[in-house]
Design goal:
Number of strands: 5
Number of helices: 6
Strand order of the largest sheet: 3-2-1-4-5
Largest sheet: 5 strands, parallel
Number of domains: 1
CATH class: Alpha Beta
Length: 168
């Protein structure tokens, strides 16, 4: 059985993340979307909130599960006997960062293989960091995140579900 881990902060989950998850679920017998918990950062959403949003957004994918971990990804991989890491790439800059991490992961655990998947061009400009920045300044992210994630953002930041905060 080929099991891959798609690690990330998913704070919040974007349509780009969902694109990679949907396509990755077709490539592997099982795909584990795993949230990296970084205790030194204050996320927009709690780990439980993010796990719940991902579960709901991927409920149509029967071979996708959601988990979380702290520490080194390669340790998490070894503890769970996982061998494949799935990573989405948006830009050349992503590739430069990801190849460095992939090489280090391979050095730390030579059984781990990283699979890179290009994000759909329609989502290549979207990142969780940019989404958080847009939310901070009351911008509209409705078309950049799954509907249920937008509903959570609207609840958390006191917006109506259909409210457009863009200035254009």
């Amino acid at each position: 059985m080929k099991i891959a881990v798609y690690p990330g902060s998913f704070d919040p989950m974007t349509k780009g993340h969902l694109d990679v998850i949907e396509r990755g679920s077709n490539m592997f017998d099982k795909l584990v979307v795993s949230i990296l918990v970084n205790s030194s950062k204050t996320p927009c959403f709690t780990t439980d909130e993010r796990m719940d949003m991902i579960r709901k957004a991927t409920s149509h994918l029967k071979n996708v599960s959601v988990d979380h971990f702290e520490g080194l990804l390669v340790n998490y991989m070894k503890e769970n006997n996982y061998e494949y890491i799935l990573r989405g790439l948006r830009t050349v800059a992503d590739f430069e960062n990801e190849i460095q991490m992939s090489t280090m992961n391979k050095k730390l655990n030579n059984k781990v293989e990283t699979i890179f998947l290009m994000t759909d061009v329609n989502y290549s400009y979207i990142s969780s960091t940019l989404i958080r920045e847009i939310i901070k300044f009351n911008g509209d992210v409705k078309n950049m995140v799954p509907d249920l994630v937008y509903e959570k953002i609207a609840q958390k930041y006191g917006r109506t579900k259909d409210e457009d905060h863009s200035t254009s």
